[in-house]
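hiii, so i know i said id send this last week but things got crazy w the move. better late than never?? heres the sequnce for the chain we talked about at the cafe, plus the structure i predicted for it. fair warning i was half asleep when i ran it
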Amino acid sequence: MKHGKLATIIFLLIVLSSTTALALGFGKRSGDPMTGEDGPDLVLKVMEQAVVVRDFQQFRDVLSDSFTYEADLGTISMYPGINWDHWDVSKEEGFLKKFLSPAVESALNLTDKVTERGMPYDQEARYELTYQMTVEGQTFIGGALFVFEEINLRWYLRSWKEIMPITNEATGGFYTNCGEVRASLIP
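okay and structure toks below
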């Protein structure tokens, strides 16, 4: 009788150990970095912080694999040699690696002027915001629509679309937006 109980306990321990080992082998291991964020606002904060510390991987971790950038008509006409319709995550990665270089002296502000936060619906959220990007002392300001997507309870930036010209109050002219920065820094 005692051998039967002992054998059952040993069997249960083996099954439990095997199940745990399989779960660790196929799932996320403890200590692996999390990607995405808990919400769209945190995605924006991560993007800003990644520029401050010049951390490409931190920035990349909050971009969707299906990321797209949509330039405004002015930028498209200024840079006809760039195929803006095919600006995807690989193009964005090439741009980001140069943008995050310490030599570029870049800065990014996305969180100060979020003018509209669309409530998440069907694993998607839309924000309209005015952003500021600085590269080598030159300021670029634009209005953008950011589309975020939720995948497995984590949020990622799926699309950055330029949506409005921003007027320079001092001169009455228009600021250029980050399409110009992307065009000048693509590999």
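btw The chain has six helices and five strands. thought thatd interest u
miss u guys!!
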